[in-house]
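Dear colleagues,

As part of the handover before I leave the project, I'm documenting each prediction I ran so the next person doesn't have to rerun anything. This entry is a single chain, and its sequence is reproduced below.
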Amino acid sequence: MTDVDHSVDVFKNQCKFMVRGLRRCRNTATVNTEEQLCSYHDPATQLTHMKNTENPTRISSSHKRMTRPDSVIQPPEKILPFKQTSLPVILDIGCARGLWLEHLQQKFKNDFNYIGVELREELITVATTRNHSKENIQFRCMNCQKPSHWCSLLNLKFGQLDQHVQKLENRTKKSNVRIIEGKKVAIMDRPVYNAEFFMKSLQSTGITVICIQFPDPWAKSRHRKRRLVDDGFVTMLHNVVRLWNHQSEESFIYLSSDREDLHDEMVQVFSKNEKYKCIGYRISGHPFQIGTERDLVCEHLHREVYRSIFKML
């Protein structure tokens, strides 16, 4: 068969509908053999594909993949003791398939222990399967907004955690969030971030770095309450880490997002809690020099990623 005959054969089963009168539809799964139209443009079936013009709603891909936090009810299994308990721990909240932690382990080898937590159980299954032979990486499915899940994960006593939360709530909170022209702007006096000093600080045992990278945005106003970072979460996170670290070790919070509004909101929430101090605001580049999958996508699309680092006091 010649090249010309082959091109004719390709168009033989292609939908004949002209999109905006400029080009033919690219679908080839034709169901209407008489008119040679695909299921999307066939009048008999296109009613199921028509958009609601009275109340049009667009569901983005990010909304489709997001999971409601309250859908995870079952507490996670507790973290098993690591082989080298003296190593610092990197905790990745929202680890997805765990590829970022896997890449960290390949770079730093046995310099850290790694814990990944995620809402979607199917992703945790993939992450666990990929890293089942590694002794310093563990993954769990949990709801990070529930204190009982943290107690189950780290084998803490819920009553002791509750006492720490109440003590902190009774204290006066300081804020380093200023208001300029009616709009909150966090950390006006930007701290000078030193990447080399930050990496040298990661020498203590216990949970040393908590990473919250590209959390679900929940952009609609009625869904904002589902966002991960709020006052209650920030307070609970401090108490959980301090209890597990036995009060003595330094811990850092790394925040990142490609949404400026979400990043600034997280920064403001952490900033107004007196138990956190910002040591890097809108820093350039990932502190570990290894980006997540989302980091690489943003780099490819030339989309800015906003990053900040807090120190837990």
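The chain is about 30% helix and 20% strand. Residues 74-312 form a domain with the Rossmann fold fold (CATH 3.40.50.150).

All the best with the project,
I.
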